[in-house]
Amino acid sequence: MNPLSILSGDPDTFVREVWGRRILVHHVEPGLLEGIFGIDQADHLITENALRTPQLRLAKSGSVLPEARFTKHATIAGKPLTGLVDARKVLDEFADGATIVFQGLQRYWQPLRELVRGLEEQLGHPCQANAYLTPPGSQGFALHSDTHDVFVFQTFGAKQWEVHDAEGVHQVDMVPGVSMYLPTGTPHAARTQATASLHVTVGINRYVWRDLLKRVVDPLLAAADDPLPAALFDDPEALAAALRDRLATFADAVRDADAAGVVATHERAFATGRQPLLGGALLDVLNAPGIDDDTLLRRRAGSTCLLRPAGERLHLLLGDRRVTVPARIEPAVRELLAHDELRPRDLHDHLDAAGAIVLTRRMVREGLLEVVR
Question: Which of 28, 39, 133, 304 is deepest in the core (most CB within 10 A)?
């Protein structure tokens, strides 16, 4: 699955001409989106899982409902479990016109976790996912704008959107197979008519230049925490002269900052701080000791790996962690990454049999590969 292609059409055109500039409506085969989080999956989470707030909230006529309206208390092994979603109360509120909001869905719904990780890899910006289930003839939120970019895609029913931009007000009918991109700050509101609606929003928390500049400036400011002199304004000219000296020193430090190092630090924080994709990893841990030359392995869906050489070591940025291996095995790692499926023996041009098994077992334990079962 190429998330950016599905949600926006041509990724190059999106990045070059649309990103952050204007709204975009895109149509795809409905089944491509419905399978990510559809009405059956929403029903499953509400009625068959022990969701807790803030995983779920309710909104009606522009207001968020108090949690006490739809939660209950329980105990496990004598310890209190608070904020537990009461499915009967949620369904009653839904029947009475409340929108059900699933928050941070990428944290507990695997298909959206994979979609979000794929988008993050393509865009280089952190993403998150919510879903909104609205009954017929209802509106969860009034006209508002978000502090981040969003992709919206419909997976069930229909919803009529009112979207404002520099060219005026647009009416967009969202039905399964339709996705829409809204840049940060785009005013919008949505309402159902004759049918219920389920749509997913993927929020893109775009990095801004301030984020990189702060990595340079903040340490310099932290080093300037010594106090100003007493009798502060007895000699304003002396104070101004001292400030000019510090500004000159500050400017020199900014000018000489290691820009490449700042970018590398930012990349490392992003490329090792994502949510892990570990579906089936328990079985992989159990199966890893039995991997031999003929074991069929494949790249875990949604997995990422950036290679960053560091002298005699090679850093692998795996999305949720950094793994370090000897730099001499880089050709074997690149060969491994070049295949969707492989067997340890496929690495024998670069490693002996024992080394290939050690590497592949390690990559299974780290979640980059999985055993084909």
Answer: 133
